[in-house]
Write a structure and sequence with these properties.
mainly beta; Immunoglobulin-like; four-stranded antiparallel β-sheet; elongated
């Protein structure tokens, strides 16, 4: 299995309370396994508040819906041993 690396990392975002925010991270290979999104070291799941998807096979996206003050913090994307934060 190829060693997947991060090609384009996360970017810091500033949003207003109640807005949606989307983070994107591009990886080197399609169908990457062992991928994880975290907010403040808490693993995020795909649900009505967090939309986790993959665009064009290599761009992993996380959309946080209707953010609140409790969503302030560090977002981490991890694939294998590689991480990117914003």
């Amino acid at each position: 299995e190829p060693n997947v690396t991060i090609v384009s990392g996360l970017k810091d975002m500033v949003v207003f309370e109640g807005d949606d925010v989307t983070f994107r991270c591009q990886v080197s290979h399609e169908n990457a396994r062992d991928v994880e999104w975290k907010l403040q070291d808490v693993a995020l799941q795909n649900n009505e508040m967090n939309e986790i998807s993959v665009e064009k096979g290599k761009t992993h996206t996380l959309t946080l819906r209707k953010v609140t003050e409790q969503d302030i913090g560090t977002i981490t994307f991890r694939v294998g041993p590689h991480t990117s934060t914003a």
